[in-house]
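Quick start: read one record
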Amino acid sequence: MRINPLTQTDFYKTGHIFQYPAGTTEVYSNFTPRSSRLANVLPEYFDDKVVWFGLQAFIKSYLLQIWDDGFFKRPKAEVVAAYKRRMDTSLGVDAVSGDHIAALHDLGYLPLEIKALPEGSRVNMRVPVLTVRNTHPSAYWLTNYLESVLSNSLFKPTTSATTAFEYRKLLQAYAAMTGSPQDFVLWQAHDFSYRGMSGMHDAAASSAGHLLSFYGTDTISALDYLEEFYLANADTELIGGSVPATEHSVMCMGGMDDEVQTIRRLITDVYPSGIISVVSDTWDFFKVITTHAQTLKAEILARTPNALGQAKVVFRPDSGDPVDILCGRAFEVVTDTSDAALDAVGKGITVVQFESRFYDVQTNPSAGRAKFRLKELSAAEVKGAVECLWDGFGGTLSAKGYKVLNERVGLIYGDSITLARAHAILERLRQKGFASCNVVFGVGSYSYQGVTRDTFGWAVKSTSGVVNGERRELFKDPATDNGTKRSAKGLLRVEQEGNDFVLYDQQSPEQEAQGALQTVFRDGKLLREESLSTIRQRLWAQLS
């Protein structure tokens, strides 16, 4: 579908040109994260700031390319007629005229000024990341006409960039605690989200946000996005990367009985060096990392390192509880399995060892029978994947005394990972004496798509306007709201004070011209352009 920039809005916006007071010549608005109340973050690491990202791509792709190709380069009569037809058939004949559309086409450019904070900045709640206003008096309607597309184009990349940064902080903290290499953290959260996102553009923009904090992604188009919109150069800088990996169709095609032979062929013939990730739960995950892994131990250890010194076989579980699968289960030894004995098991422990066997204690749903029923578990399930690989392959100790698996084996878990689950995994591994670098997390759409504009309360609001030459300060403060929707008032200025951005409203035009909000776009031209490397450097400098 060819994108018509005039229809990238809500219907109710089309009539606002007639609703503003007569004599209106300017509308001044801002885009602001208002609240983190709904954000799925870790309170002990989150400091109520978002990572600002996505504006440069929005300007290049939408304000320049799409408006140029879909409006200014097309014949005026054609675009006006198309717009008038859409309005007439949807809102009623002559409900919206096309005169202002024709006037904008005659102007030949988008008469807007956008001022913004530098991308990669970490911005406090209730502080605008950008302001926008019309620069031509006849285009006062245009400022908020773009609200809808500005909002739906920008909330996702900046929300994903914020989520990724929260993963980065968590992983760096545990690397420091357990003596894991900090360089490994850059690859420890790998973007698995593409198939679960809301379309191609959403996936690319979101993963580009992920790549501000990490290098690992399976979203190929994110590299295209960053190369095109952020001056990234894959020939001279590392934008992002991945490794060869199997899927269930590959493992199934080899057959259950020949699973070990499938893995052998992959690690010796197809990928004799480098990293290969093998999905391992097609049938029996713990059989793969114990029996199969030991059968193939000599081949695994003998793999040839590539130019980067890598020769790792990474096992990938893809089902079950990720915390238990990786870390194992806490258990208590009991001398009998009566209801009374099981009732006495420590709070939070659901596994018992009885006569050298392990059992998962489950509530019995059958009335009139024993309160509990027991499901036998293997010793491997109780140990967890990391400990199983340690038993089979050994490893070394970090500088902090934590166990690090043999460099030829590793684990990645990519099913329903969240910040909370990642935290639980890292903490349980630490308590068991294992370093954080023993696992990689596949961060998917559960983290990156399970968000909305409300995750950080993003909103575009007008705070100033000009009517008959007189500037008017605008604001909203609904009596029925809890204060979240209360807006700033008048012209705005943002100052960086220490590590924070601070908003000052009700500013004079001279004051508004100062501060950290800098003009990025004016009258159809991108005036400030920054590279991926600059944005990463700005963001990484804020890691404590």
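The chain has three domains: 1-242+408-424+433-544, 243-314, 329-383.
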